[in-house]
Structures are given as C-alpha cells and as structure tokens.
Amino acid sequence: MSNVSLHNVRKVYENGRVAVASASFEIAAGELVVLVGPSGCGKSTLLRMIAGLESITAGDLAIAGTRVNDLAPRDRDIAMVFQNYALYPHMTVAENLAFGMKLRRTPRAEIDRRVGDAARMLGIEALLKLRPAELSGGQRQRVAVGRALVRQPKVFLLDEPLSNLDAKLRLAMRVEIARLHRTLGATMVYVTHDQVEAMTLGHRIVVMSDGHVQQIDTPMRIYEKP
Ligand code: ADP
Ligand code: ADP
C-alpha cells in the first residue's frame, strides 16, 4: 500500500525559481524515506508541499489514497517536526503537547493519555512542567517530536530535525527516531543534507540535485562503491 504518492509534482516560486522540476515516486506505508541532497536542491520545498505548507504548481499528490493538492495541513494525515523546534515559548512542555488537541476540543482524559504516552516514549516525563527556555536543545527537539506524536498521524514529516544539535546528541536522537519508527510502524519522510544520517536511517533514499530527483534506491545501492 502506498501512503504518499507523487506524480509529476512541480514547484515554481513566484520569482520564477524552479525549486522542484518534476518529482514522481511512491512511499509505502511504514517506510522511512530520506530526501537527501545539497542545500538549495529542493528537499525542503518537496517536504513542505507534502505537508501542505507550500502550494503545488503542477502534478498530483496523494496521502493515504486521497488527493491532497488543495487540502489544508490540518486536513492531511501528517505531522511535521521542524529544525528550529517551533515550540510555543510561553507554554510549558505539557501545554505545548496538549495545545492542538485542546483547540480540537479533544476530551481531557484523551489529552492526558496522549501527552503521557508521548512523554513516556520520549523520556521527557520530568520536563512536563518546564518551559522551552529551560530546556537543552536535545530536550526541545524531543518535545517537538512529542508534539508530532500526539497527533497520531499516518505520516511523519521531519525537516532537518537534528541539524541544530551537537554531534553526540545527533547520534542519540538518530537512534531514537529509528526506534520510534519501528515502534509506531508509521511512515516517515525525513529531509537531511547529511549523507551519514541518510544512509543509517533510510530504508530508501531519494537523492535530489538542483530541483531534480536523481536517484531513488536503498542506501546499499546508492552508497556502495562501484
Ligand atoms: P533545500 O531544502 O534542499 O535546501 P529548498 O527547497 O529550501 O532547498 O530550496 C530550493 C530552491 O528554491 C532554492 O534555490 C531556494 O533558494 C529556492 N526557494 C526556497 N524558498 C523560496 C521562496 N519562498 N521563494 C523563492 N525561492 C525559494
Ligand atoms: P498545534 O499547532 O498545537 O498542533 P493545531 O493542531 O490546532 O495545534 O494547529 C493548527 C494547525 O497547524 C493544525 O490543524 C495543523 O494543520 C497544523 N499543525 C499543528 N501541528 C502540526 C505538526 N506537528 N505538523 C504539521 N502540522 C501541524
């Protein structure tokens, strides 16, 4: 079953810049696909089109069998984790995790259950009453992942989630994300410019260059010496 399907997806910005020329590929349910390539190659634009944060100039995009070209982010079965965490500074960790569900009038018991589950999975139970400014970078990124988790989406979109962390934390969080992926069985689309991250995390890797998809294959086949 295909969970994310792109058919000739194209993005031209208003200034004429062709960020994504024409991308066509399928991501299976439960797969972890990494989009990799140098800065400016169009990875983030592609991810943001899947998220609904950027309009699609041409082509078709489907998530879980539904064409989503014209659907708002909230109507897509996705959650996104951003490089800069995007936490609400005036709220505690628990409030950050609960906020979206409160807006949607999720029952209190359900909110508490999901916040508790996410906090346990990420080892941040002790942080629930703190505010983002009181957290380390790694802790903030855990909370950002937690905010995506509580949405219980079919598809997780991660945009350079570890780029702001130091090397040691990056490794720890990489292992953590792989573990979460196994535990949840969710589909993940992960953007990075780091080849090691791509190689160690991806089931399949989409290599991009200057707006074009150059190669889609397993890490073995992409990175093995000829
Ligand atoms: P990556 O994520 O691989 O670094 P991006 O998707 O951010 O690449 O950018 C792809 C290209 O589109 C780059 O040339 C970038 O400068 C350009 N670009 C990105 N956002 C915009 C925008 N809002 N308006 C115009 N050009 C943009
Ligand atoms: P919150 O932003 O705290 O989750 P909402 O879910 O109501 O609260 O946020 C408004 C909209 O922003 C959502 O309906 C959804 O479309 C989008 N949104 C919120 N969190 C995410 C996320 N992690 N990934 C993608 N979109 C999100």
From TrEMBL:
**Which of UniProt's keywords are assigned here?**
ATP-binding, Nucleotide-binding, Transport
Q: Which GO terms describe its cellular component?
A: ATP-binding cassette (ABC) transporter complex, substrate-binding subunit-containing
On the tree of life, the source organism's domain of life is: Bacteria
Report if keyword Transport is assigned: yes
GO terms of biological process kind: carbohydrate transport
Q: Which residues form the ABC transporter domain?
A: 4-226
Molecular-function annotations in GO = ABC-type transporter activity; ATP binding; ATP hydrolysis activity
Q: What is this protein called?
A: Sn-glycerol-3-phosphate ABC transporter ATP-binding protein UgpC
Upper lineage ranks?
Bacteria, Pseudomonadati, Pseudomonadota, Gammaproteobacteria, Lysobacterales
What would be the name of the gene that encodes this protein? ugpC
- What stretch of the parent protein is included here? 1 to 226 of 359
